[in-house]
Specification:
Low-confidence stretches of chain B: 17-42, 538-542
Mean pLDDT of chain B: 84
Number of strands of chain A: 3
Largest sheet of chain A: 2 strands, antiparallel
Largest interface: A-B, 23 and 46 residues
Largest sheet of chain B: 7 strands, parallel
Structural class of chain B: alpha/beta
Radius of gyration of chain A: 12 Å
Number of strands of chain B: 15
Number of helices of chain B: 18
Strand order of the largest sheet of chain A: 2-3
Low-confidence stretches of chain A: none
Oligomer: heterodimer
Chain lengths: 64, 571
Amino acid sequence: MPVDDETKKKIEKFIRDKGLNEYGDDKGTVYAGGTPLFNEMTGRTLDRYEYILKKHPGLRGKQG
Amino acid sequence: MRRRTMNRVVQLLMAVALVVTGWPLVQPWLPQGPLPVRPLAADDEGPVPGKIVVDARDSLTPSQLASLNQAYGVSLVDSGETGAKVLVADVPPGQEQALLARLRKDRLVEAADLMHRFRAYYTPNDPRFKEQWNMKMIGAEKAWDRTRGKGVTVAVIDTGVAFENDEKCYRARDFGGTPFTGGYDVVNNDNHPYDDQGHGTHVAGTIAETTNNSEGVAGLAFEATIMPIKVLDANGSGTSASIAKGVRWAADHGAQVINMSLGGPFPDRVMHNACKYAAKKGVLIVCAAGNSGRGPVGYPGGFPECMAVSAVGPSGELTPYSSIGKEVAIAAPGGDTERGAKPEGGVLQNTVLHDGVERRDDYFAFNGTSMASPHVAAAAALVMSLGVKDPAQVRQILQQAAKPKEPAKHYGAGVLQVDRAVQKVDGAVRDSWLKLLFTVIAGLTGIGVGAVRGHLGALLRYPLAPLGLVLGFLGPDMVLAWLGLTSPFNIILHSALIPLYLLWEADSRAVYRFVAMTAGGYAIHLAWDAFSGHAPFAGVVPAHGLPWLWTNVVVSLGVGLVALRRSFSAG
């Protein structure tokens, strides 16, 4: 399901306010391969907002 | 009589000084262990005595063949299997060249040469090795003829490695013969860095999966020792603090190369300090550039102490997922199962995957800069096993040996070529000996000519002049050995700026002569670097460095000529 603009804004504000990294995790978080969005086993890439919403479902807007 | 004795003493002293000052300079280039002398082209075992091969015209008839045999007193034999007239003959050993010279002039002969015996490169018997396109792309087989990484310890800082067999741990099926040294689990704070995710084992497999054991696939430096360090949890994530601990632990426990197929967007200072600490201890740190598909390179790969590796697919082109940026040092095979033929486009290694219910110990084709990075770490181990221990020098060799590809922010110095890297080690050793020999011969020739022509008095009046030549020729490398290959000061040290500055400050005949000789030494030094294709310090891609080098050669020569002219007119 595509993430609506309102939710995207909410996510960006949440990240700024909490001082998180661009994936919504603590700033010092390190990932296998360097990003949690790319699955090295399948070669598929996740949407950044979808990844963040999975960890913080409360951020999803009314339409989303 | 007294003057003659004095001349001889001066000659002797200068010869001793040349050897004494030149000898320590050779050390940084020399391997620390004995280096066996082997032919660079490992596939060619040389000519077979008493055998020649003749490529005759394809239209050669049996009667023409008979006349050839009669004319040259040989018995050329045509195998007749392919239609091509490739003939072989036995000749008395020692007469091959004379006969070949005559045969080459014959109108029925297209080419004639000594018969060379070739052998296949080292090819492991691992049944799925043929699926490892990545090993072929980087010239692994040719490199294995020379070395397999024995004696070098590579720390794999990752999710751990499936290398132990006990109630808690499990050893992956194709790691039975891989050398391991004790590791550390930072996540669980114990000495059993078991891989509960699968990523770290796959990465370790690219470096040193057991090879030539009739099982699975090969690792690139399969005689190197793996030091497993677990810093990422079962979800494949960890903290910068864990990474820092892992890096320091590896540096303190004898790792010579660290591979980190991990990263994050934040340039954490604690993590950076740990990388600085390891680099100061002489550890080469190789990192994945990241899988963001854009810039910049993540961290720790983005730190200057680390070698960031971008990923290419089976076509040799940058993969869509690879991070890019000016920090990319080199590119290596990372796999591309999206654009490549699935799943053959990935990097195939053994690992153990856990889905919560059961574990799957099998061969999986992954793709990512995580897979590219261990190719470079293993290549570094191969180079180090030949005796080059300085990480900056190893980095330089890998970059210079890479297959050049633009743009640099995608590929760094180019695509990894391990066969060329191991050959470069031999070249570097040869180069260092040649430099020493050149210095000694040039010095002794100068003294000899001076003695014969009775100009030794001039040498004594201007003792700084020959010193200037030696300083110009060897000085930049002397300081480079002290500063390290990555110091930014090297660009000044290896430029014509120094002789130019000396010319500016010169004010007497003696100093002008010194400047002229120093500039001459600089010109020879820089031209040497340019001819040998060696960038004089790390971080300079030879293709980019060559115009700069030649410009400095010309300027140095100009400075030398001006200084020489002024030395004649100065009072």
